[in-house]
Amino acid sequence: DQQVKQNSPSLSVQEGRISILNCDYTNSMFDYFLWYKKYPAEGPTFLISISSIKDKNEDGRFTVFLNKSAKHLSLHIVPSQPGDSAVYFCAAPSNTGNQFYFGTGTSLTVIP
Amino acid sequence: DAGVIQSPRHEVTEMGQEVTLRCKPISGHDYLFWYRQTMMRGLELLIYFNNNVPIDDSGMPEDRFSAKMPNASFSTLKIQPSEPRDSAVYFCASSLNEGRLPQHFGDGTRLSIL
Fold first, then answer.
1. Per-residue pLDDT tens over the stretch B11-61
2. Chain B residues within an 8 Å CB radius of A44
3. Which domain holds residue A24?
4. Which CATH number fits the domain that encloses residue A58?
5. How many domains does chain A have?
6. B42, A6: Cβ pair inside 8 Å?
7. Residues of A with Cβ-Cβ distance to B50 under 8 angstroms
8. Phi first, then psi: what are they for B27, rounded to 5°?
9. I need a surface site. Which of A13, A24, A42, A85 has the fewest CB within 10 A?
10. Any CB–CB contact under 8 A between B30 and chain A?
């Protein structure tokens, strides 16, 4: 059973516009979330994280929003650039903190 | 700094053959994870080790899968006998001994079982 879900397998956005990638989770005990970015033929790399004590965390063009009541988080990329084209995974660690549950990923294409 | 190193990058073999995937974690990392990526299920955790000891192998799909970590710098994931449904990309990742630090992934092994 997927504890972390990404219901949009793909997203296309024009360069310069905002990209919004969504993630839902089922376990209300999750208190920390991460986004990873994956290029083809490479492993995922860490992008940004958020703790449940916050509802927003920003790092340059990337902002993650957390809505605990809805068990929903989103990653905003603005402005989107062609180099942002990749698969984005959201993830949450288990209560022990040493396992990670990953979503199925959203493939973002930024069109020049 | 060298990252997580996986070998081979690609493996094509026939059904029934034994497959061994290899991983060298980042030096000093206490945790090592094996994942499988498929279109349907995304990244699934198969097994993870702490200080070379397997902690949770509940994600290992069948007895055909086994993993070992004989020392801090090497781990293997073995499939014997292999089946076409095992075709996927297998990732190894490592992390420091703190649960909130991100995992560092290798570039994966693309496995095709014919």
1. 999 999 999 999 999 999 999 999 999 888 888 999 999 999 999 898 898
2. 43, 91, 105
3. 4-111
4. 2.60.40.10
5. 1
6. yes
7. 98
8. -60, 130
9. A42
10. no
